[in-house]
């Protein structure tokens, strides 16, 4: 069985001239709805400076790449009709005053979480991979958890926050971690234990519902998928496809381990939290925590370990050569965080940095 993959990308709406984030999602969504006769893939997000789209499930990664580029192009076109531009940025480089979206759910979140909700203008990328059952899905969650920080480092695309260099490659990961349910979690052990844990979490009253269970990876509450949520939105759509392909490879590998009776790593959540912090801090520019030894190693070595871990699955799906090439490209040219910083160093302007990211997003 070839597993299907779907991607959700959150995009930033910005002023085409100033580069500042603009609260125009309602206008863009209305234009998209009219253009697609009610079949729009776009949705509102917590803040009105954001726009989200979802691809359909794809078994072929070339088809997924076409879908990501197609919906990005449509987002660019609809935003232009509303007087804005689109940037695949996980945070706004320029200072911004986030505006909470309309609707009862978002109003509840704003009241419940205060400044945490107000400051959550961040854009992520969620990858859905099909699973045969909740039992298989939870077995996968238990076995991919130690590799998720590597995906964060790969996708890191948020070095700037409110006009300043945050000193992180993914400052989004720091902001996102303020939600009470966000981050890595313990090994679940079974689907029954997973669902019982989610019910208990919601029953505390801290969260509104199951949709606010923001684990780094979870069972989707809408689709028969494992949903990996740790990544920043990627600046280059090729990196989105690389991320999705690696996630499918991780899911395939984990499912095989489960069927073979191999237990998941017993590493504690505190180690995973430290590894995620390091991934968000350094991205691909320094050291990462190796998921097998839990010791610091250069990022390219840890990426190599990830590739070796999923190699058999990638060979079987026919994706190995494409992933090897894409990883080499990312190591050479850098992720979104490096591209943003290099653009700022070259131009001396965050406005020009946003403009360059708008150009890359639209390509």
Automatic annotation (TrEMBL):
Keywords: ATP-binding, Ligase, Nucleotide-binding. GO terms for biological process: modified amino acid biosynthetic process. It comes from Streptomyces parvus. Its EC number is 6.3.2.2. It catalyses: L-cysteine + L-glutamate + ATP = gamma-L-glutamyl-L-cysteine + ADP + phosphate + H(+). It is an enzyme of class 6 (ligase). This is Putative glutamate--cysteine ligase 2. ATP-dependent carboxylate-amine ligase which exhibits weak glutamate--cysteine ligase activity. One of its GO terms (molecular function) is ATP binding. InterPro entries: GCL_type2/YbdK_subfam, GCS2, Gln_synth/guanido_kin_cat_dom, YbdK. Pfam families: GCS2 (PF04107). Belongs to the glutamate--cysteine ligase type 2 family. YbdK subfamily.
């Amino acid at each position: 069985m070839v597993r299907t993959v779907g991607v959700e990308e959150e995009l930033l709406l910005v002023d085409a001239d100033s580069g500042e984030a603009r609260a125009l999602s309602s206008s863009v969504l209305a234009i998209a709805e009219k253009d697609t006769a009610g079949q729009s893939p776009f949705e509102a997000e917590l803040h009105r400076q954001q726009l989200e789209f979802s691809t359909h499930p794809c078994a072929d990664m070339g088809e997924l790449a076409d879908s990501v580029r197609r919906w990005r192009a449509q987002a660019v076109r609809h935003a232009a009709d509303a007087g804005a531009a689109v940037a695949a940025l996980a945070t706004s480089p320029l200072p911004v005053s986030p505006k909470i979206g309309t609707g009862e759910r978002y109003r509840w979140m704003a009241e419940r979480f205060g400044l945490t909700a107000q400051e959550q203008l961040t854009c992520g990328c969620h990858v859905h991979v099909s699973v045969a059952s909740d039992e298989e899905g939870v077995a996968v969650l238990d076995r991919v958890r130690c590799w998720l920080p590597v995906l964060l480092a790969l996708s890191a695309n948020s070095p700037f926050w409110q006009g300043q260099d945050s000193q992180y490659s993914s400052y989004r990961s720091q902001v996102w971690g303020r939600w009470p349910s966000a981050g890595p979690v313990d090994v679940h052990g079974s689907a029954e234990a997973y669902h019982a844990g989610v019910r208990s979490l919601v029953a505390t009253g801290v969260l509104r519902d199951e949709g606010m269970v923001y684990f780094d990876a979870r069972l989707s509450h809408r689709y028969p998928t494992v949903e990996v949520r740790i990544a920043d939105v990627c600046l280059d759509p090729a990196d989105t496809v690389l991320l999705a392909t690696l996630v499918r490879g991780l899911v395939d590998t984990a499912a095989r381990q489960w069927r073979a009776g191999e237990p998941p790593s017993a590493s504690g959540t505190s180690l995973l939290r430290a590894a995620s912090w390091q991934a968000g801090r350094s991205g691909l520019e320094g050291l990462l925590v190796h998921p097998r030894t839990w010791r610091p190693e250069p990022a390219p070595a840890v990426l190599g370990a990830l590739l070796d871990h999923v190699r058999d699955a990638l060979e079987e799906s026919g994706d190995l050569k494409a992933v090897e090439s894409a990883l080499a490209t990312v190591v050479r040219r850098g992720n979104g965080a490096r591209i943003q910083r290099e653009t700022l160093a070259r131009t001396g302007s965050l406005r020009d940095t946003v403009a360059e990211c708008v150009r890359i997003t639209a390509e």
